Amino acid sequence: MIRITELRLPLDHIPEALPAAIIDRLGIAGTDLLNFEVFKRGYDARKRDAIVLVYTLDIQVNNEAEVLARHQHDQHVRVAPDTNYKFVARLDAPVEARPVIVGFGPCGLMAALVLAQMGLRPIVLERGKKVRERTKDTWGLWRKNKLNTQSNVQFGEGGAGTFSDGKLYSQIKDPHHYGRKVLTEFVKAGAPEEILYVSKPHIGTFRLVSMIENMRTEIESLGGEIRFEQQVTDVIIEKDQLRGVIVNSEQELRTDHVILALGHSARDTFEMLHERGVFMEAKPFSIGFRIEHPQSLIDRARFGKSAGNPLLGAADYKIVHHAKNGRGVYSFCMCPGGRVVAATSEEGHVVTNGMSQYSRNERNANAGIVVGITPDDYPGGPLAGIAFQRQWEKRAYELGGGTYEAPAQLVGDFIKGKASTSLGDVIPSYEPGVHLTDLATALPDYAIQAIREALPAFDRQIKGFNRYDAVLTGVETRTSSPLRITRGENLQSLNIRGLYPAGEGAGYAGGILSAGVDGIKVAETVAIDLIKSCTAQ
Ligand code: FAD
Q1: 112 in the same domain as 62
Q2: Is 525 part of any domain?
């Protein structure tokens, strides 16, 4: 099979143009093209009046070796890599020792699935509820201002990405094609097949819910167990070796292999692990606001007259500005045609994030506009970033009026430094509602200054970005984990054997896809270690 990359055709090309372009590109006779498949389809919208589709294609031809030899100096014509997933082990008969996974977000889910598929019968402990019950609790905050601290946007089956835009792309290096395994499993569980070939796949919230249930069923059918409302409250460590965990402060579960897939909001668990001496260190993350514009503004700015073309979908953006005070300001987790959501897991805090449905057809586009910060901004050790996040989340709660409404301000007023008193045409989507105010004290001064400078600069990239009545809602603090539970080359904690920190909470992923990929990577290492220790006994 031959892979061609970077084959570019106009957005409105007819279907026959694709095989014709392949024949032309390879310089073969039409009869020598046996078959082709689109591996990826992206677009290049840098010239918005001449948008092109960019294909990666897998192709079968007559005389493949000869065609490849003729193109040996062409980096865009190569042998197609084998992206099928290969298990590192597969057991015919179960072994007694069972790995334990803490957390059932994308990282824990993929780790559990792969371990179950290998025959290792994992036990998953998840502090939150099953996804359908969790959905009700999450809506409880959005509709009735009532937070359940164990069952919310951050905690419960499916993890933090369940109520999300379901974007499934990542910049990580993935030489073993684990990302393909994640996407393939998602499709098996009910995700749209196109996620395998579009360059910026997304699923949206509703589909994620049923997919997660289907994946749970598969894990259980292979002998795995998923135990809900089971919070790991302590760890049993003997001579630097993990020997088990304590669940809900009472029940002991013995095991020598624990994957910690906690997510970035498990602050109580981080505190407990720190107290037990598990090595961790503060790491950089970002803070800021969510911004909302009409989606039609973003579509026009990015796609010009092609706005609305179904092959392009709702437009997204990625923008960066280097502020004079040395801070980087950038867009984060942009959600086309979606809504801003209340994402706190702690009482008396307000946190924003974004989600959408598969159709991405809601009125507003939203994105985090965030400023990079480092441990120098919150000195005080590994847990200082959590204290810093809490400080600004509490401040947002106060500025929002103390009811879980979020503080908000029009962009024009924010730049002028005056409190907003009424909305313009952009109606904020945040539930349970926004409280118009002045956001000047919602973040540290350096962040406010940097965002004030960045918004007009972004307007030069996306016309209308700085419009007066675009809405800022605060605060965006859970952009990634504020700490890293550092692991060594064997993927175990630097100082505790048998403890495998993984995913976003441990500082090794940022997003659904990369968390799933990390879950697979860690699961493979656990499988090899566990089988070795069983055969050594
Ligand atoms: P998580 O998904 O956070 O899962 C951790 C799990 O561990 C949770 O279910 C939690 O309940 C459980 N847990 C924690 N502590 C304990 C304990 N002590 N005992 C037992 N269980 C415990 N990423 C994208 O790539 N695309 C998007 O479109 C996107 N949109 C997002 C929208 C929102 C609203 C949010 C909140 C996040 C979004 N993200 C998105 C980020 C993405 O969700 C995370 O990067 C990803 O979920 C991290 O996966 P994880 O498995 O490492 O952790």
Answers
A1: no
A2: yes
Whether the ipTM is more than 0.95: the answer is yes
Residue 359 pLDDT grade (very low, low, confident, very high; cuts 50, 70, 90): confident
Tally of domains within the chain: 3
Shared-domain flag, residues 117 and 157: yes
Please tell me if the CB atom of residue 53 comes closer than 6 angstroms to any atom of ligand 1: no
2 beta partners: 59, 79
Atom 45 in ligand 1: residue holding the nearest Cα: 511
Q: Which of 333, 473, 483 to mutate to test the pocket of ligand 1 (most atoms within 8 A of CB)?
A: 333
CA of 157 to the centre of ligand 1 (A): 9
d(CA 369, CA 350): 16
**Beta carbon of 509 within 6 Å of any ligand 1 atom:** yes
Q: Do 440 and 354 belong to one domain?
A: yes
- Decide: 148 in ligand 1 pocket, CB within 6 A: no
* 514 within some domain: yes
328 φ, ψ (degrees, to nearest 5)? -90, 130
- Tally of helices (H runs) and strands (E runs) in the chain: 12, 23
- DSSP secondary structure code for residue 230 in this structure: -
Among 448, 476, 504, give the residue marking a domain's end: 476
- Which residue range(s) make up the domain with 62? 2-79
- Asked whether the whole model's pTM tops 0.90, one would answer yes
Where residue 38 sits, what CATH number does that domain have?
3.30.70.2700
Are 451 and 527 members of one domain?
A: no
Let me know if residue 52 belongs to a domain. Answer: yes
CA 77 vs. chain centroid, Å, equals 32
Q: Is the CB of 167 under 6 A from ligand 1?
A: yes
Q: Is the CB of 163 under 6 A from ligand 1?
A: yes
Residue 150 CA, closest ligand 1 atom number? 11
Sign of CA dihedral 168, 174, 178, 180: positive
Ligand 1 pocket residue status of 523, Cβ below 6 Å: no
Average pLDDT score over the chain: 96
How many Å from the N-terminal Cα to the C-terminal Cα in the chain? 45
Going from the Cα of 159 to the center of ligand 1, the distance in angstroms, rounded, reads 4
| CB of 115 closer than 6 angstroms to any ligand 1 atom | no
Residues 71-111: pLDDT tens digits?
999 999 999 999 999 999 999 887 889 999 999 999 999 99
Tell me what pLDDT residue 421 has: 98
Residues 135 and 226 in one domain: yes
